[in-house]
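Thanks for the sequence, V.! I ran Glycine zipper 2TM domain-containing protein right away. Repeating your input here for the record:
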Amino acid sequence: MKRQSRAAQSKAVLALLCMGAATAAAAADYDDYGRVVNVTPQVEQFNSPRQECRTEYAPVQQPRQARGMGGSIIGGIAGGILGNQVGGGNGRTAATAAGAIAGAIVGDRMENNQNQPEVVTEQPVRHCRTVDNWQSRTNGYAVTYEYHGRTYTSVMPYDPGERVRLRVSVAPQL
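Predicted structure:
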């Protein structure tokens, strides 16, 4: 009985192999070419903003320095000495006082010149703004081709040229 069951198993395996071979023989894959009728690039627009900057020079006033006292003191002493040289008695005292006052005023004006304009310098000022930067890029090709009298369209990552390589699969309809 064991011999018969092994024989039956062998026949079953052989039948399955034959069915698979028949199916494989009926299905076929091969390469062929189709004629390209039209290729249209698939273009995508995108924005890549960028910075535009420019530098301008703006005038800046420098503050005056604090008023000095040295010119008034030296001018007052010099004016007092000169005033003391003029006149005699009470006149000499009045001339000394008047010379000291006049000398102090002249010394102050020489040190802290009121007519001298403020110092103006220029400082760079940077101004930036963001501007749109639209660009285009091709992200594929819509390829229309003919094969055995029928028209097909497919999106491909490249332009195939005048003909497109096709993978054809033939199988029986079950």
